[in-house]
Amino acid sequence: MDFTEKTISGERIYSGKVINVDVEEVGLPNGKTSKRELVRHPGAVAVIAVTKENNIVMVRQYRKALEKEILEIPAGKMEAGEEPHVTAGRELEEETGYKPLALKKIASFYTAPGFCDELVHLYEADIDKPGRPFTDEDEFVQVEEISLQEAEEAVQQNLIHDAKTMYAVQYLRLRINEQ
Amino acid sequence: MDFTEKTISGERIYSGKVINVDVEEVGLPNGKTSKRELVRHPGAVAVIAVTKENNIVMVRQYRKALEKEILEIPAGKMEAGEEPHVTAGRELEEETGYKPLALKKIASFYTAPGFCDELVHLYEADIDKPGRPFTDEDEFVQVEEISLQEAEEAVQQNLIHDAKTMYAVQYLRLRINEQ
């Protein structure tokens, strides 16, 4: 059965700095119509970086959407025309000062497919010594390096509380257990 | 250091069926201001259900935001005033016909904390025999039951392609490996 929802009409409700919002009237498989609210996002990257001391490089930052600080793996949105691995290297260095020696793609996932097209590309970076972070002027992050066990505890405490970082912590646990 | 971003002014750009969109002017820690685009979402649940035959209950559905079909674990947004475990039981039964015998909370995660407050509550359900699904009138889903290995292959093929489902697949793999 073909479940495709064809766009009958659409309207751009909002054009922003990070997101655009469209509302579309779609035709359903049963011949009826429905309204879909769609957030358009340029896509993002996230980076798992483990130090020689076996700590995960995290950034603590205030998330206005949540009105609280959380610990996340370094991440950022893709600039127009930028390849994901380039974004990954750039964001890691800007936010943490670590320059990646090598980057390996781990996974890509849509974060909220019910209403948003944001695709996050997850990389693992080989890193050497950290340099000096240089974040964007409207971005305030604090680097924290924690062990995998501390990360798992931070998940329990809702200090790590976002899908990409929780996926990354699980990924590292799986890999260590399989060794 | 206090990274809190205080709201100076805000405007509701869009009030929708699923999401609302706010644009806020915020005060930054350095005294400057910036604009934050914020998508408000009521929150959602997702359910891991494994059959007696050791297959994961998945639903195939067309996602307009992605313009394609993907395989996901059963999920849905919370209705006003609804407790997450109630949503979990309701969505599982509506989408798949399986009535949960018991529900266990596994995790909660923000899907896109950079711009959206959607929090997904992930449950694991004990299930018995399936009944008959009864989805919403604008929702078309097809139930598919696949093994963990098939799910991991579906991840490789980008047929499973969203964070909550990929997190769930990793969760099941971790648990099986730890047995």
Automatic annotation (TrEMBL), chains A, B:
Molecular function GO labels: hydrolase activity
Domain of life: Bacteria
Keywords recorded for this protein, A-Z: Hydrolase
PROSITE patterns for this protein: NUDIX, NUDIX_BOX
GO biological processes: nucleoside phosphate metabolic process; ribose phosphate metabolic process
Coiled-coil segments on the chain, per record: none
Cofactor entry: Mg(2+)
Keyword Hydrolase carried by entry: yes
Pfam families for the chain: NUDIX (PF00293)
Every Nudix hydrolase domain range: 39-168
Annotated Gene Ontology cellular component terms: cytosol
Protein name: ADP-ribose pyrophosphatase
Species name: Sinobaca qinghaiensis
Lineage: Bacteria, Bacillati, Bacillota, Bacilli, Bacillales
